[in-house]
Specification:
Chain lengths: ~110, ~110
């Protein structure tokens, strides 16, 4: 049973560029949440997708957007990258009827130069 | 604003010592409570969780946590740590009727043989 997978594992971008990160949820899960973990900090909630729609959003600007596909996989897009966007981006999946139990992927480490 | 405080940023123990990591949250309503662990090079894993009922919850690997509602606390304990417990520990809350986890900044635990 595959767990949550994320790609790529590492990414280097320059300021102003755009980036897309990908997540495949654990088998049987239909809800995907994205978190940003800056160095030395705990993860911060970005948003959550269910039934291909954004259901909840944290305190992140509109530069952060997402998408969920019919197979429940998800993408996180960040436009106009800033140096401060450098972080580990975590995807967590859950089932809608037990959304409080979230399983995390290994993350994508983004470095913005 | 909702927040989670972990007062111990870095804890160093010898094997067999007892462990207690503090966690306090600020939220006036009902919450679900979690402790996550991140072993070196691995992804976030759920250690234990509290939703309701007995305020003393037991998790994996001999860990337990006690929810004290009057103190808004959910401290993590283990009577005798092992070298393999070296990891970063995150306390998190999920306010009732939301699906987002709010994390503390984490506590880095180092256990020496």
């Amino acid at each position: 049973d595959a767990g949550v997978t994320q790609s790529p594992t590492h990414l280097i971008k320059t300021r102003g560029q755009q980036v897309t990160l990908r997540c495949s949820p654990k088998s049987g899960h239909d809800t995907v949440s994205w978190y940003q973990q800056a160095l030395g900090q705990g993860p911060q909630f970005i948003f959550q997708y269910y039934e291909e729609e954004e259901r909840q959003r944290g305190n992140f600007p509109d530069r952060f957007s997402g998408h969920q596909f019919p197979n429940y996989s998800s993408e996180l897009n960040v436009n106009a990258l800033l140096l401060g966007d450098s972080a580990l981006y975590l995807c967590a999946s859950s089932s809608r009827d037990r959304v409080e139990t979230q399983y995390f992927g290994p993350g994508t480490r983004l470095l913005v130069l | 604003a909702q927040s989670v405080s972990q007062h111990n940023h870095h804890v160093i123990l010898s094997e067999a010592a007892s462990l207690e990591l503090g966690c306090n949250y600020s939220y006036g309503g009902t919450v679900n409570l979690f402790w996550y662990v991140q072993y070196p090079g691995q992804h976030l894993q759920l250690l234990l969780k509290y939703f309701s009922g007995d305020p003393l919850v037991k998790g994996i690997k001999g860990f337990e946590a006690e929810f004290i509602k009057s103190k808004f606390s959910f401290n993590l304990r283990k009577p005798s740590v092992q070298w393999s417990d070296t990891a970063e520990y995150f306390c998190a809350v999920m306010p009732y009727n939301t699906d987002k986890l709010i994390f503390g900044t984490g506590t880095r635990l180092q256990v020496f043989p």
